Every structure is written in structure tokens, then in C-alpha cells.
Amino acid sequence: MLHEQLSRYLGQVEAAVSQYPTAYVERYTEEILTPERVNLRLRLRFDSGRLLEINEAVVVVENQLTFLDYRYHCQDENNQLLFRYDSTPHFPDLSTFPHHKHLPKVVIASEKPDITQVLQEVSQQLPGFQ
After folding, report:
1. How far is residue 67's CA from residue 30's CA, in Å, rounded to a whole number?
2. Count of domains in the chain?
3. Which domain holds residue 61?
4. CA-based nearest residue to 67, from 103, 111, 117
5. Is 82 inside a domain boundary?
6. Does a structural domain hold residue 130?
7. Distance in angstroms (rounded) separating the CA atoms of residues 71 and 52
8. Is 129 helix (H, G, I), strand (E, B) or coil?
9. Inter-residue contact 69 to 57 (CB < 8 Å)
10. φ, ψ for residue 2, nearest 5 deg
11. Range 72-81 contact pairs with CB under 8 angstroms and sequence separation of 24 or more
């Protein structure tokens, strides 16, 4: 049986995604490795053609969610990068190492956002956002 913290978190992710009716879920995979560990993979396509891919490796440690790794990648309808948050340890000089954000022409320091923040960032850039 899946740990209560993970089960609750996955429910929150599903609820957050459902708040965006202009997003079509192309892929939603919960890979349950143990009762305390899950890998989450989502691929959301927005009406504008924008794509958001979400990848997380989450484990429960001392009854708290811990993100072992994550990647939130957003690109436009022409497959051009808009932004990507990730925890790959390849920018050691950034103050938030290993966390960072890729923009089209630069990589900046950034803490790990939650999925709700990432979805809001994508939607705020969409045409017709209010």
C-alpha cells in the first residue's frame, strides 16, 4: 500500500492539473517503486501547442516528502525552450545549486518550484490569460 503522504501528494497533483481545462494530458504515469517511493511523469499539451513535461522522483523520509530529482520542462509550439527547472548538478556556482532554471539564453539560480507554481507560470504566458 502506498504511503499516505505520497497518496495525498499524487491526489494534489491530479487536482492541480485538472484546474487547467486548456491542457490535454498526453501522459500520466505513476511508477510506484516501493510504498515510500514513486516516480511521476506527466506530459501536458496546451491548446496553444505549448508542452509541459513534469518528471519527479519522490520518496518519503521521516514522514516528509523528499524530491530526489525533478525536471519541469516547458516549450512552445515550435519546440523552443521557454523554461526548465531541474536539479541536475551541473551548475555548481549558482547559489541554489543543484536547483536552477533554464531560460532560452541563460541559466539562473532558482529554488525548486512546486507543480502548482509551474502550471501557473505556463498558463500566465498563454494567449488570452486573464
Report:
1. 15
2. 1
3. 4-124
4. 111
5. yes
6. no
7. 10
8. coil
9. yes
10. -70, 140
11. 72/113, 72/115, 72/118, 74/50, 74/118, 74/121, 74/122, 75/50, 75/51, 76/48, 76/49, 76/50, 77/48, 77/49, 77/50, 79/51, 80/104
Taking the model in full, what pTM does it have?
0.93
129 has pLDDT over 80: no
DSSP string over 13-73: HHHHHHT-TTEEEEEEEEEEEETTEEEEEEEEEETTS-EEEEEEEEEEETTEEEEEEEEEE
Q: Answer whether 99's CB lies under 8 Å from 111's CB.
A: yes
- Fill in the amino acid letter for 62: E
The model's pLDDT over 7-66, given as tens digits with 9 standing for 90+, comes to 999 999 999 999 988 899 999 999 999 999 999 999 999 988 999 999 999 999 999 999
Q: Is residue 90 part of a domain?
A: yes
Tell me the one-letter amino acid at 56: E
Judge whether 118 lies within some domain.
Answer: yes
